[in-house]
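>> received
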Amino acid sequence: MRFAGLLLILACISAPSRAQEKMDEGPTNEKAQKTYKEASDYLHRRMPDAALETFKKADKQDGGHCLACQKKMIKYGVELRDWKTAEGAAVEIVEQAEGARNLALAHYQFGLVLIQEGLNKRKDEPFARAHEEMNKALAAAPKFPQALFADGQALAHLNQDDASKARFEEYVKMRPEDDPDRQRALRYISQPELARARMAPAFAFTTTDGQRVAMDDLAGKVVLIDFWATWCAPCREALPHMRAIAKKFRDQPLIVLSISLDSDEQKWKDFVATNEMTWPQYRDGGFTGQIARTFGVEAIPHTFTIDADGVLQDEHIGDASIEGKLKKLIARAREIQAPQKQAQAQ
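>> returned
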């Protein structure tokens, strides 16, 4: 899943130490600095394979002490499924970590790499190692909610449901009620099998009409998320299709969410009003917006189709014929809702 790699963004326990900040600046070796710049140039030219190899070279030239190189090696190692490189960089970060905070973050990051590897290879061994790394992270920083959540996921994939639920219960106690991930953890506690599924990421936002929308509040409904922008010609061309879908399934257990990447708020509002986009609308502000980054959106229009359990079923870049898929998912949503409505009636 495209957005899965975004789990590698580190959660901050507190501000990093000065030593950590200094290491983040890049290599100190002059030769390594030139190589690091070359690797960055490869990224600008959209050549991640070449960039990854060059970041590895820069780290080696710097004696394995280039934290910035290692973070890039993890990021692009995961994206390119080069697990040996990603793991090696994570080990280097652990070995160089100073202080409990940085040590906890290092083990946590290593654990996330292993979770991604387990998902990709569909094997238990990486999940078992991820569990070990999360335990080490929690030993260094017991009040580390993200590590608890990730450990719950690792344990779920190992089919240790009771231990997994215990981790999610610990997480729930540490997070505010309006935290989307807390809502997700509650769902995992009641339905452990979902922690093993390809779930759409948890999120929450407030629409233009003041409605709070949270992914896990939509359980029981099919969700179609449409990333777009007013400046995007293919998005404008796809708009009549999206409007037709919203109208056709208006009274069905389906919700369409349009998330704009516009930076100009007024232009976006005017466009939405002029084009009668009456379904829920939200402006994320660009490709670096929180929701866009969570879903790993790099091109638009980009749609995600999510079933009534919150599991990602489909995604498309560009306009696509998705009505058939939506009908099947809606039919299943109705099957899920029927016993619930019957119970309420009784």
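>> The chain has 14 helices and seven strands.
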